[in-house]
Amino acid sequence: MANKHTIVLLQTSQNRATRTFMDYDSISQAMDGICGLYERKLKELNPATRNIAYDIADLYNFIDGLADMSALVYDHTIQAFLPYDRQWIKQKVFQHLKRLAH
Fold first, then answer.
1. What's this model's pTM, rounded to 2 decimal places?
2. What keywords does the record list, in alphabetical order (predicted)?
3. Residues 72-96: tens digit of each pLDDT
């Protein structure tokens, strides 16, 4: 998963103006970025809480609650970006967090 340029595309609401992207040097960094996005949202919703804890189901609900989320991952063998859907992102986030826990 190292050194695979990854672009996360997301839309937070049905309003097309909420479309944005996040650009990363690797899939792992992209998964960190998605977790960070969720953690910032939690802090925004709970400003008085010092330590915020969540489980994978909470993160999945956040991802599913977005109007749209997908990823483009650069494949050096074909010199092109390959598209991946929300389910793939959820699977990669889970694997990433599992690796961090061990």
1. 0.90
2. Cell cycle
3. 999 999 999 999 999 999 999 999 9
